[in-house]
Amino acid sequence: MAKWLLAVGMFLPFFSAQATQDPEVLYNRTCAACHTGQLPQAPRRGDRAAWEPRLAQGMDVLVKHVTQGFKAMPPRGLCMDCSAEDYRLVILWMSGSPDT
Fold first, then answer.
1. 3-state secondary structure of 46
2. What pLDDT is recorded for position 18?
3. In the chain, what are the domains?
């Protein structure tokens, strides 16, 4: 029994790892509620002028803002199943950054 539990414990992380979500699907599910103009301070998708100063802060800062909440943005941007990589990819997608 102990060997079985040990084996399950060793392989469980491989089965529970979440694949990165599609940035457009993620945006439509959680981000669009605020980033389509409902909140004037939330930069719109594709508005390079609004995104440029934010991107200049560095991706680590932007992901931290999303994760912890920043100004009117609620913690995790209301995406409770998003990873840091999901946030990074959706930020790049929303900003129209060539790094996507």
1. coil
2. 58
3. 21-93 (1.10.760.10)
